[in-house]
Amino acid sequence: MHRVDLAVIGGTGLYDMDVVEVIDRIRPRTPYGPPSDEITVGRLHGLMVAFLPRHGRGHRLLPSEIPYRANVFALKQLGATRVVSLSAVGSLSDRLKPMDIAVPDQIVDKTWGRPSTFFGDGVVAHVEFSAPVCATLRAVASAAVRQVTGTVHDGGTYVCMEGPAFSSKAESLLHRSWGMDVIGMTAMPEAKLVREAEMCYCLISLVTDYDAWHETEEPVSADMILTYLRKNAENAKAIISAMADSLPAGRSCSCGTTLSRALVTDLTRAPFSTVERLRPLLAPYLKA
Ligand SMILES: [Zn+2]
Question: Burial of 21 by CB count in 10 Å (0-12 exposed, 13-18 middle, 19+ buried)?
């Protein structure tokens, strides 16, 4: 069993992390079925890093079909404490152009029908989510993006839509009127599940297009997005490498103790089967 420090979830266009010196490829089992694909575990700047392609290699899963719970649970089982989530996004702002990279600090969830919690079945928890992204991990990501590309869009709001169709122009203008900065299809429920699993989370958003609002640009196509992402894949790998090089050893944030403030249920009265299922999450809160 590997003890992973940093987990990386790759989005569209990023299906491998060849900067990592591969030690193992694993297919973990979880109570939520298998994750999107095999997880690569390897070494990078002395850290143990796990890489999981969110859509599966060959890009086989729609955003709505991604097994978010299995993905996050599998990374937790590997001992990961920090999760970096890379994804392609559309720009909703004049400041963000294709090939730019944003490191958002807020998320608006417009998805529906995706299981968004590990809890239920007799164990209740309400995690704090006012800051959906870990400020400490985000700062490391932001500095790494700046180091690799010379610039970064620090902060901003990611609105997560269900997809898979892109926005209508009216929806795009609505999101702009709300002050959203980027739009994607995968940050939720990933961010909520990572918080429930007491891991740190940050987003690195690779801008591929202007969504549907821009008057002078071509409407967004999947082809266009892939062209930009192929160009950006090398940057993404260099950013992860820079992050691994500068990640502080311990955690000074409060992500790792989230459930101490969130669990409502008296675990001595909770159903045995649920407690067993959630053991990797609940272990610090169970009496021996
Ligand atoms: Zn944190």
Answer: exposed
